[in-house]
Automatic annotation (TrEMBL):
Domain of life: Bacteria
GO cellular component: plasma membrane
Cellular compartments annotated: Cell membrane
Protein name, UniProt field: Zinc transporter
SUPFAM superfamilies noted in UniProt: CorA soluble domain-like, Magnesium transport protein CorA, transmembrane region
Membrane topology designation: Multi-pass membrane protein
PANTHER family the UniProt entry points to: CORA FAMILY METAL ION TRANSPORTER (EUROFUNG), ZINC TRANSPORT PROTEIN ZNTB
Keywords on record: Cell inner membrane, Cell membrane, Coiled coil, Ion transport, Membrane, Transmembrane, Transmembrane helix, Transport, Zinc
Main localization (coarse): membrane
GO molecular function per UniProt: cobalt ion binding; cobalt ion transmembrane transporter activity; magnesium ion binding; magnesium ion transmembrane transporter activity
Entry annotated with the keyword Membrane: yes
Transmembrane segments: 271-293, 305-325
Species of the source: Pseudomonas guineae
Family: Belongs to the CorA metal ion transporter (MIT) (TC 1.A.35) family.
Length: 331
């Protein structure tokens, strides 16, 4: 009931975390004058495209104009920005798993957080937030705003592993195809698509990996605390995925280079054959042209055996050339 009412205001989800892994959903109107308990935290998840979201952020959220401007920027990359009073802005990216979308066309989630509050904004639906809500409703979710951010980053990273593995398997298939069918080149368009997808992922995963590294050493105790090892693990996982993507790109480049060499060799072999054929027929073309000039004194013009003699002469020239080319090992 709350979600339907909240959607009119651009509020996708609103939960109060009870500090024990569970949460209760609240309506937009209940946010006015809401007092959190000692162990409670507030999570508000907004639709960034909704006009009411902009109004609430600038008028009711209590955030500075600087923070609102950054949260509502049209385009942004993964980044981490510490704010005064133990607050932070965190922009992350996740795979676009919406129907009809390309997964590497990554969607953004923008988060403002402090010790008892997390405000997140998205433009397109994120499966990671849905998984997070399932955990909260089952009573096994995050207990604090810091754990909520960590759990969200964890789900975003899990989805990336599947796509990186899929790209690696596609490269494996193309390599097997090239090895098994030497006369048939790998799928050029498929290789280019794999390289493009890997580049798109690296564009956002590299700065996101660095963010996880920064969070490991963050000075904000409420955020890291005992969770520094988990942020470090996320950093290591993204580092491994980036290495896998770089390896996939190198393998694609090697396959493309092998394909280019194969095409060059095929072209050179074809041109070589054309050269041999041209070399054989060039003297015969000279003879036919010489005998075909319309002047008097052409040998055999009056003889009934002239045509046969001319053909025999050209056959003899062709035989001598063939023997010469064989001796020179040109054929």
């Amino acid at each position: 009931m709350h979600e339907g009412d909240n959607a009119q205001w651009g509020l996708v989800h609103a939960f109060v975390l009870n500090g024990k892994g569970g949460a209760r959903s609240i309506a937009r109107q209940a946010m006015q004058g809401l007092v959190l308990g000692e162990h409670e935290s507030l999570w508000l998840h907004w639709d960034r495209s909704h006009p009411q979201t902009h109004t609430w952020l600038r008028v009711e959220s209590g955030l500075s104009n600087f923070a609102c401007d950054l949260l509502l920027e049209e385009n942004t990359r993964p980044r981490l920005l510490a704010l005064p009073e133990q607050q932070l802005l965190l922009f992350l990216r996740g795979l676009n798993l919406n129907p009809g979308a390309e997964p590497e066309d990554m969607v953004s989630v923008r988060i403002f957080a402090d010790a008892q509050r997390a405000i997140s904004l998205r433009l397109r639906p994120l499966h990671a937030t849905e998984a997070l809500i399932e955990d909260l409703l089952a009573g096994r979710g995050p207990k604090t705003s810091a754990e909520l951010i960590l759990r969200l980053a964890h789900y975003l990273t899990d989805k990336i592993e599947l796509l990186v593995g899929e790209l690696s398997e596609q490269v494996d298939d193309q390599e097997e195809r090239a090895d098994a069918l030497e006369s048939q080149a790998p799928d050029h368009s498929a290789l280019l698509q794999i390289r493009r997808r890997a580049a798109s992922l690296r564009r956002f995963l590299a700065p996101q990996r660095d963010i996880y590294g920064q969070l490991t050493a963050s000075a904000q105790a409420w955020l890291v605390g005992a969770d520094s090892s988990y942020w470090n693990e996320l950093n290591n996982r993204l580092t491994r995925y980036l290495e896998e993507l770089e390896l996939s790109r190198e393998r694609v480049n090697l396959l493309l280079e092998a394909e280019n060499r194969r095409m060059d060799e095929r072209m050179n072999h074809t041109m070589y054959r054309f050269g041999i054929i041209t070399g054989i027929f060039l003297p015969m073309s000279f003879l036919t042209g010489l005998l075909g000039i319309n002047v008097g004194g052409i040998p055999g013009s009056e003889s009934p055996h002239g045509f046969l003699l001319a053909c025999s002469l050209m056959a003899l020239v062709a035989l001598v050339q063939w023997l010469l080319f064989r001796r020179l090992r040109w054929i």
